[in-house]
Amino acid sequence: MRKQGPPRPGPPQGGNYGVIMGNSADEQAVAKELEKQISELQRASDSTASQEEIERLRQQVAALRQKVSGPPQDAWERVLLARHPQRPYTLDYIQMLFTDFMELHGDRRFADDAAMIAGFAQFEDRPVVVIGHQKGRDTKQKLHRNFGMVNPEGYRKALRVMQLGSKFGMPIISLIDTPGAYPGIGAEERGQAEAIAYNLKEMCKLQVPVIVIVHGEGGSGGALAIAIGDEVLMQENAVYSVISPESCSSILWRDWDHKQEAARVLKLTAEDLYRMQLVDEVVPEPRRGAHMNHAQAAELLRPIVRACLDRLTKLPLAELLQRRQAKFRRLASFVSET
Amino acid sequence: MTWFHKEKQPLETPKEKRVQTEGLWVKCDGCKQILWKKDLEANLQCCPKCGHHFKLGSHARLEMLFDDGRYTEHDARLASTDPLQFKDTKAYRDRLRHAEKVTGMKDALLTGEGLIEGKPAIICGMEFQFVGGSMGAVVGEKVTRAIDLCIKKKLPLVIVSCSGGARMMEGAISLMQMTKICSALARLDEARKPYISVLTDPTTGGVTASYAMLGDLNIAEPGALIGFAGPRVIEQTIRQKLPEGFQRAEFLLEHGMVDAIVPRKDVKSFIARAFRLMRAWDS
Description:
- The complex is a heterodimer of chains A (338) and B (283).
- Chain A has 338 residues and is α/β, with parallel strands linked by helices.
- Chain A has 14 helices and nine strands.
- Chain B is an alpha/beta fold.
- Chain B has nine helices and ten strands.
């Protein structure tokens, strides 16, 4: 585990990535902006934003107003950090880690899903396929990206592009950040469950290395649908869970007030998942979280991705596939035989 | 003070005069008629009046599908280790113990090997009575072992799903079962042995989004609720009432998600016929 990993460079230098980071006055400005978005979303009657989404934004505002200080101790604080409105999103990482990015669109069956990014790029002069969930920053973007909640066509687009990678020998890098697959009428009509299930089966057969980076929210099946691979990395403040703490609380406690406790018992932090061997490596973040310094967060990720690629591309194909099958066969075997 | 004091003991009423009817009758969810429970059992838990399909337990299911109701069970002793030490209003351990007492099973899946119309097959049946038929590490492991067994013995596979989805109380471990099972199904593809997924009421969440939708054939019982997200979650998200029949088997057939809707009494013969056509038993 590289929890302490490379030495962390000094204080955050502030970024030039379109968002303001650092001092508390800026954070208050962001909080104000988010409050504006909440009221906009509430007013937009044709919006697909759920009550839960608005609730999420409210929590982000609360977190900003409180201002988290020091390293997070509680699982719930990690949830807030993973959802932090200034945290780098998939396109931010693509911009910082890759060159020559060429976005590809559409699943060739129904539509193009803006909540899912897919395309070709270069990682240090190596052609790769990049896919990932995309959230939006302002109200317009959030609606356009559907809050990072993917529809079936998004998963099918991702698989289509991954299979191109498999065909042309380009390793695949998948960036995970979603509250979950979109629960809507159209999504059900077009086979949300089938799209996820089919991806899981077909990703096992990809003939190139697959590296997964969970950098924000790993929201259940919606995340998993593009998150199975030869190496699964998870940033230290990312979370990965079978259900959101809010929904877990509402099902088991029948109210939303136990979300903190739910976050704790669900064991959804990077540390927890690493301990249970559900992820392969924990990637350190800048002090106080990736949102403090986007460039630094990307640079902490870079050498680990490079090492994974070096290691996996050396393996003969048969060994890569055999290793992948063996890894998945052993995965999460918490059973006893009495 | 003693104005109302009763000096005499109240009269004793004989208890045995009451007729015990509780638990002998059920109301049909389909036609609202009152049904004699024994009639329902004799009819494979389908309403004799309107054909509504009630839930069928895993044991009854396997007995119905295998010849003479006979089969050999596999991996019966596999049990959850409660890896998260999960506790909400009740400890997960206690929920497991309670479920075990009710069902006599260690977890929510029953694996059997037996004959279907004289030919060997493996069938997994999910048990809804066990924590809502949810999928945790044990269900994941048992399904994977069943698939491995099919590959080893060159047998076709049937999985009868009836589940609310992944088991919350095992957190991300439940989620990873989807990966484990789907990778095993990828191996079964290579072995070229057919797999029929039978979707029954209800099949939702992580179970639908993994093996339940990946059958070479997907067949559904009439009226079964099948979907990814539960109807309540969708309603909350879109803030609208859902249309009549949404996420029912007939809706899935219309949208191309299942191959056929098969009434319970015909499921066995359908499977046998399909396996013969897919040359499951040709060596």
